[in-house]
Design a protein that fits this description.
By secondary structure, the protein is an alpha+beta fold. Helix content is about 20%, strand content about 15%. The chain contains eight helices and nine strands. The strands form two sheets. A six-stranded antiparallel beta sheet has the order 1-7-4-9-3-2, with helices on one face. It has a three-stranded antiparallel beta sheet with strand order 6-5-8, with no helix packed on it.
C-alpha cells in the first residue's frame, strides 16, 4: 500500500507535508535529525558488523579505495528492510516518483580514515534524458555514525537538481570506475564554495533528489563514518542493483509486503513487471 503523509507526520516537526515538499523542490534536499532511536541504530550496527569485519574496500575511486561497501542488504537482515520502508523516506520517494516506485539500491557505505572525496555525481544519471528535467530517483542517507565536517559527511550542492547538462569540475568520469584514476589526497579538484556538508547526528535522515549533484566527502578524522543509503527510482526505470538476483525468492517471502513490492514484486501500471502474464507476487508462497 502507498505511504501517506500522515504516516510521516511524527517527524515533520509540526509542519505540513506540503511545506516540506516545497522546500524539497526548491533546495533538492532535506534533513531530519534523530529519526531513529539509539537502540535501533545499535541493532542496525550489530547486523552490519560481520560484513564490515571482512574489510573489503572499493575497487576504484568512485567506490572509494578506503571505503567498505556492503551491498544487497535486504538479503542480509530484516533490520535493513525497516530502513527501506520507513514511512518518512517513503513518503517523499512516493510523492516524487509515484506509488509504483522501486528500490534501486540499498547499501552501507563505511568511509575509513584517509578516504579522499568522491567524484561529483547525481544518482539518477543512468536516465539519459536532457536536463533540466524531473528527478527519476530519490536517495535517502541514514546516518549510523555522526556525520561531521571532518569525517566525510555527504556533500551536496543546493539547487543543483535544477541545473542543465553542464558538467562541473571534479565530476565523475569513466576512469573513476576502472581503478585507473589516482586520487590525490592533497588536492581536491572538486572543492566548491557553494557545497554544503550534510552534518547529522547518528539516527538522522537526509533525502535528496536524484538530480542533485553530491559526493561522499573526505574522511580526515581518525574513525570510520558509516551510513546506509536506500535509493529509489521510478517504477519504469531499471534498478541499479538487480534485486531479483540479490534477494532470493525464499528471502523475499519473509520480507514485509511493501519491501517486496519495492524490489519488484509489483506492477508499474498498466502491466510493466509481469511474469509469464501474471503479477509477480503470485510466484511467492506468501501469496
Amino acid at each position: 500500500m502507498p505511504t501517506t503523509p500522515e504516516q510521516a507526520s511524527p517527524w515533520l516537526q509540526g509542519r505540513t507535508f506540503a511545506s516540506w515538499r516545497e522546500e524539497f523542490d526548491r533546495r533538492g534536499y532535506l534533513i531530519f535529525e534523530r529519526v531513529l532511536a539509539p537502540e535501533r541504530v545499535a541493532e542496525i550496527r550489530a547486523a552490519l558488523a560481520p560484513y564490515l569485519a571482512r574489510d573489503l574496500t572499493g575497487r576504484n575511486d568512485f567506490e572509494g579505495l578506503k571505503t567498505n561497501r556492503v551491498y544487497a542488504l535486504l538479503a542480509k537482515s530484516p533490520h535493513f528492510a525497516e530502513l527501506a520502508i520507513h514511512p518518512l523516506a517513503l513518503a517523499f520517494a512516493e510523492a516524487e516518483l509515484g506509488p509504483s516506485c522501486l528500490l534501486s539500491a540499498l547499501l552501507a557505505i563505511n568511509l575509513q580514515p584517509g578516504e579522499t572525496a568522491q567524484p561529483w555525481h547525481f544518482d539518477d544519471g543512468g536516465v539519459r534524458l536532457p536536463r533540466p528535467r524531473p528527478a527519476f530517483g530519490v536517495s535517502a542517507f541514514w546516518a549510523i555514525d555522526d556525520t561531521t565536517e571532518v569525517n566525510g559527511s555527504t556533500e551536496i550542492i543546493p539547487g543543483s537538481h535544477l541545473w542543465d547538462d553542464t558538467r562541473i569540475e571534479g565530476a565523475v568520469k569513466p576512469a573513476d570506475f576502472t581503478g585507473m584514476a589516482a586520487p590525490d589526497a592533497d588536492h581536491d579538484a572538486g572543492e566548491r564554495p557553494d557545497a554544503v556538508k550534510l552534518a547529522m547526528p547518528s539516527g538522522s535522515l537526509a533525502i535528496t533528489k536524484g538530480t542533485l549533484w553530491h559526493r561522499g566527502g573526505a574522511n580526515r578524522s581518525d574513525r570510520p563514518r558509516l551510513i546506509i543509503t536506500p535509493q529509489y527510482c521510478a517504477g519504469w526505470v531499471r534498478q541499479l542493483e538487480n534485486m531479483a538476483l540479490a534477494v532470493p525468492a525464499n528471502v523475499a517471502e519473509t520480507l514485509p509486503e511493501r519491501a517486496r513490492e519495492l524490489i519488484g514484486y509489483s506492477i508499474h501500471p498498466p502491466f510493466m513487471g509481469y511474469v509469464d502474464g501474471v503479477h509477480p507476487r503470485r510466484l511467492l508462497r506468501t501469496h
